[in-house]
Design a protein that fits this description.
six-stranded parallel barrel, 5 helices, about 15% helix
């Protein structure tokens, strides 16, 4: 028994001895595993900071025209400090990109000392360095302010004393870049697909590299949305003229009304040449034509809330002085033609009109021929016109405002108007003469529309046109503008072309300001199914010419359609481009000017800039000739205007 107990005690001692020998080894392995895991966590944290520092540095590098490296270092240091990494651990350099030959990159390296866990246990400060690196390529990060897409076209070409300035973004061409002596290109980055030709060392850029640039708008959902609207516009038809019962012709002058007028159900009272016509509220009244004798006046008094319907199978010839019509629904089978010298006002209502049987001044049979001094339709109103509107020179038309004295903005500009307008045989849905004024209040309320089944012919010199704001402006025709024009906010889908100043003339005074073409918070989509056949705008889908100066086009800055200013044909079947020519100077365009199947040309002293925002021009080729200038200040990013606000 004693011998057995001794043997057991001996074995226990052996186990204790082995455990004592193994324990330090186990503790060592455990410490190594913990040490390694902690180093990996530290490395991952520092890698994230290095990535942020490199990217921030690259954006800052692109955002300034001088002191690029200092700006990049400052931005990278700020990012490190914000994330708890001392700037002494951070190193910023600018090596050649490891991805693209000749391109510059911003390299952010973080080397941080890591104190070993075991060393702390031994009361030691032994440490190892943990290093992380991040690279951001400059050439790939610079937005394409100017991009010529075609590999077979003329690329980006400057001749004749022109200048292209894009100091914070890139000038890209998938074919050549050519700038003859006397011209200049100043950009953050210049890329070319085939050759780079500078006549007198006149291309200034931090990076000049041969590479192909992809279209930054391929697959853009906003452009797809704009383009898809074209099929809706193309299928529009003009509204039909109202069909009404033939009624009694009314001729109101200086004689008492004939007894037959009583059969209409309304009362007619005359005092000298002043007439008052009263129809009980809520009824339907049928008339033929209405003719006012010169020098007379008319008050068409509608009792109650103005729910009556007035049918006229003939034309309204409103000569005389002052005429006032109350609220109601007016079905005018032959339209309205106020005579010269008259002022005619309709209260709010619904106005359905057919074509006149008498040509308006300047030609064409329109639904509204506004030849009176002033013709007013108060709002909110609904307009359904089968044969369009013509306002000859010197006359004024108000549509949809609360009154004519409250200005064009604010509470006087009512939002509940709706416009469906067909065209006369001239092809014009709206035709505005030199010196005429047309003011159309907004159509932004739910369910309201702005539809033209014909051209918008924006008048001659000295005219003023105020186009309403609307969610959609659908124009199944062309936009031809010569006078001063305001485009209200919203999308403009034009199944044709837009020409500003193609027929001569220019801007004028509109709403108390000197204006040519002013379009703020708009997107313009052009199909290019038609182009001008002659003149300086021949073959162009978008054109500014004939001294049409100081146009303003600004895209929205938020939403799916943000930064899309003027979008050209998306089908290669329509290759018309864009041009600014013949002295069209001082254009301010904020947003993308995108013509993937057409050339963009500035000539004859034309100029365009973005006023410190972002003008991004993309075309098959881009050409500047004859003393023109083009400037853009987009700030780097992913090659899209949406990156312009990243600083």
């Amino acid at each position: 028994m004693g011998i057995h107990q001794a043997f057991v005690n001996c074995r226990q001692a052996s186990v204790v001895t082995v455990f004592a020998l193994v324990l330090p080894v186990l503790l060592g392995f455990t410490a190594l595993i913990a040490e390694y895991g902690s180093i990996l966590v530290t490395e991952a944290q520092n890698q994230r900071v290095a990535d942020l520092a490199s990217y921030s540095g690259a954006l800052a590098y692109n955002s300034v025209s001088s002191g690029k490296e200092a700006a990049a270092l400052a931005a990278a240091n700020r990012m490190a400090t914000m994330n708890g990494v001392p700037t002494s651990y951070l190193t910023v350099t600018y090596p050649t990109s490891i991805k693209t030959s000749g391109a510059v990159s911003v390299r952010a390296s973080i080397t941080a000392p890591y104190t070993l866990l075991v060393a702390r246990a031994l009361n030691s400060t032994a440490s190892v360095p943990v290093t992380t690196d991040a690279f951001t390529e400059i050439s790939g990060g610079a937005s394409s302010c100017i991009l010529a897409l075609s590999s077979t076209g003329t690329g980006v070409t400057l001749t004749g004393g022109t200048a292209l300035t894009a100091t914070t973004c890139a000038v890209n061409s998938n074919n050549k870049v050519s700038a003859t002596c006397g011209t200049s290109i100043t950009a953050s980055v210049v890329t070319y697909g085939t050759t780079l030709t500078e006549g007198c060392s006149n291309i200034t850029a931090t990076t000049k590299v041969q590479q192909v640039t992809t279209d930054p708008f391929l697959g853009n959902t906003g452009i797809s949305t704009l383009n898809s609207r074209l099929s809706t516009v193309n299928s529009m038809t003009a509204p039909a003229a109202p069909t009404v019962v033939t009624g009694t012709n009314l001729a109101l002058g200086y004689s008492n009304p004939p007894a037959s007028y009583a059969a209409t159900g309304c009362t007619f009272a005359r005092s000298g040449g002043n007439w008052t016509v009263t129809c009980p509220n809520g009824g339907t009244y049928n008339f033929g034509s209405l003719t006012m004798q010169g020098g007379t006046s008319l008050t068409w008094a509608t009792a109650g809330n103005g729910t009556s319907t007035y049918n006229f199978s003939g034309r309204l010839d409103l000569n005389g002085s002052t005429h006032t019509f109350g609220k109601g629904t007016y079905n005018l089978a032959r339209g309205i033609n106020p005579g010269g010298g008259s002022t005619t006002t309709f209260d709010s209502g619904t106005f359905n009109m057919g074509a006149s049987t008498t040509a308006c001044s300047g030609g064409g049979f329109y639904s509204i021929c506004a030849t009176g001094t002033t013709l007013v339709f108060r709002g909110p109103s609904t307009f359904v016109l089968s044969a369009g509107i013509s306002v000859p020179g010197g006359y004024t038309l108000w549509m949809g405002f609360d009154n004519t004295t409250g200005g064009l903005t604010g509470s006087n500009n009512l939002t509940g108007n709706s416009y469906r307008i067909g065209a006369a045989a001239t092809g014009h849905a709206i035709n505005i003469g030199g010196g005429a004024k047309v003011y159309m209040a907004d159509a932004t309320a739910t369910g309201k529309v702005f539809e033209l089944d014909g051209n918008f012919n924006g008048g001659g010199g000295g005219s003023c046109s105020w186009v309403p704001a609307a969610t959609q402006h659908d124009i199944d025709g062309n936009v031809l503008i010569t006078g001063a024009v305001y485009f209200g906010a919203g999308v403009y889908t034009v199944d044709g072309y837009m020409a500003l100043g193609a027929s001569g003339g220019g801007g004028g005074t509109c709403n108390g300001a000197t204006v040519s073409f002013n379009a703020v918070n708009v997107n313009i989509m052009l199909s290019g199914t038609a182009t001008p056949s002659s003149g300086g705008c021949a073959g162009m889908v978008f054109c500014v010419g004939a001294g049409y100066n100081n146009i303003v086009i600004k895209a929205p800055t938020t939403g799916t359609l943000a930064d899309l200013a003027v979008i050209g044909p998306q089908s290669s079947s329509f290759s018309g481009g864009a041009s600014m020519t013949e002295g069209g100077t001082g254009a301010t365009i904020n947003g993308a000017f995108y013509f993937p199947h057409g050339t963009v040309t500035l000539s004859g002293g034309a100029s365009a800039a973005d006023a410190g925002d972002c003008l991004q021009i993309v075309g098959t080729s881009i050409s500047l000739t004859g003393g023109t200038s083009l400037a853009s200040s987009c700030v780097g990013g992913s090659g899209s205007v949406t990156a312009k606000l990243v600083r």
